[in-house]
Write a structure and sequence with these properties.
3 domains, alpha/beta, 4-stranded mixed β-sheet, 11 helices, Rossmann fold, 305 residues
Length: 305
């Protein structure tokens, strides 16, 4: 029995509306979603109305809505989504909001703490592309799960041809995160970054699983700019390879775990089971949490149509 399985017997249950989350008395920074419940249950009831936890966030941020998902999506897109060409790391704190109070509210929708996997074996690990520091965090988390006894048959690296950002993904930063011990060519885009960092994992881990790389291409807009490939695009491209149906564990990290879970559920056929797990959030602004929550709500609106 691995450590995470043992921790399941130490959970203190807290009832929140019509869903249940579990806090480990040994690991208070870990949340386990009760089986047969989903991450989207933290923000929306079965009828699509907002949960009390979401209502509290809307009230705290002065979003005046009529209680419908469509209206909430419209207003949060207008108020919370970052401006075009603005990166997450450029988003500053929002004036007038108590960060600690907001983090307490955001924690109730499962956007702050680690979300732990519930099973001991998965057919696939879907490792989602991101900026270099988050890729490193996600690979570290994958290795941590494996060291605790959770096994997988295949690791699927889902990335794009996004050119790396020199401000947060320079060669110096990449080498600091992941030393080039094997004199490999340094990455220039996201999928190369995923492969470069993955290749730095221990050999015994890499020998224990199969590896598949999926690269999605950006598309050109009418004005000549390039629209980045999305998580949904990478899943669509993976499905073109005709993977055999099976159990999937997607690796993300807070606060993006819920949003990316909804994206994956939008595109994955029902024959694939899915859990999405990931590390707790790092030091980020409330604006980043809200930007992600707006995207999560929008994705849920699409998924439910």
């Amino acid at each position: 029995m691995n450590k995470r399985t043992m921790l399941k017997f130490l959970f203190v249950f807290v009832i929140l509306n019509n869903y249940q989350i579990s806090y480990s008395s040994e690991c208070p920074n870990v949340i386990a979603v009760k089986k047969n419940k989903y991450l989207y249950d933290f923000i929306l009831n079965q009828d699509g109305t907002p949960t009390q936890a979401l209502l509290d966030i809307l009230e705290a941020t002065k979003v005046e809505h009529n209680g419908t998902l469509s209206n909430i999506v419209k207003l949060t897109q207008e108020k919370w989504i970052r401006k075009p060409s603005t990166e997450r790391w450029q988003m500053e704190e929002i004036d007038g909001l108590d960060k600690n109070a907001m983090l307490e509210k955001l924690n109730k929708i499962n956007s702050v703490k680690e979300v732990a996997p519930q099973e001991e074996h998965y057919d696939y690990v879907l490792l989602l592309g991101a900026a270099a520091p988050r890729v490193k965090s996600r690979l570290d988390y994958l290795l941590e799960l494996w060291n605790e006894g959770i096994s997988f048959d295949k690791v699927v690296l889902l990335g794009s041809d996004r050119v790396l950002d020199s401000k947060i993904e320079s060669e110096e930063i990449i080498l600091e995160l992941c030393p080039n011990t094997n004199n490999r060519k340094l990455p220039k885009n996201e999928i190369e970054l995923l492969n470069y960092m993955y290749s730095n994992l221990p050999e015994d881990f890499k020998k224990s699983v199969q590896l598949e790389l999926v690269e999605s291409k950006g598309t050109k807009n009418a004005d000549g700019t390039v629209k980045r490939a999305t998580t949904g695009d990478t899943i669509i491209d993976w499905l073109k390879n005709s993977p055999v149906e099976g159990s999937c564990l997607a690796i993300s990290n807070a606060p993006f775990t819920g949003y990316q879970d909804s994206v994956l559920r939008t595109f994955l056929p029902k024959e694939f089971s899915l859990e999405t797990a990931g590390h707790k959030a790092g030091e980020i602004t409330v604006a980043v949490y809200l930007d992600n929550l707006a995207r999560w709500l929008y994705q849920e609106q699409i998924r439910r149509k």
